[in-house]
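REVIEWER CHECKLIST
Item 1: Sequence provided? yes
Item 2: Single chain? yes
Item 3: Sequence as submitted:
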Amino acid sequence: MKPIIFARIADMKFYKGITDTDKPVNGGSYVKDTNYAHECYNFDPVILEDNKEYCLGFTQLLGGKDPQLHIERIVGCKSMKEALSVDNVIVVFCSKPMNNKTMRVVGFYKNATVYRYYRECSFPGEGDEEYIQAYSFLAEKRDCVLLPYQERFCNGNWFVPTSGKMGYSFGYGHSNIWFVGSDTYDMDEINYVNKMIESIENYNGENMI
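Item 4: Structure as written out by the authors:
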């Protein structure tokens, strides 16, 4: 199984900022209270210092003031307990759409860098203010895909299970991160993840980025 991680985010159509026609939903209490989601720019490429375009991916991590993403729990990274980042990971972003009972893939980064602690990048804001974007995932635009909204529902390829529901013994729990391939994984989980990787690698449909 290739290194892969699933990250839950609020549901949006385009993830290029919040607009009157694209507002985040089902993103937890923060989104409900503020009508804002830091992941709203997850598929809005930016040019960084090397003049290449990248997507910066955010998901809310648990753990108080200085939360961390436990890289060592990513499949194949067990020995990286002190590593601050790891490369060449598939990051699958998922959300629960309105009026839908199941989680769905909204898009993915291939060949991504995953960081243990949030990193930050600043951009010009309104007036003299700067906008600070926190992120845990970084990938070149060419390796990023945002699925068209209807594509997310058109077949079973983009369904994401929740552990303990619909008969699944694996999938999302309380955390926004699903580390697949844990110590208790079984063949059903392996088969599911391998099928997801195949769907990602073979996807040749429209990319909304």
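Item 5: Key structural point noted by reviewer: The mean pLDDT is 92.
Item 6: Recommendation: ____
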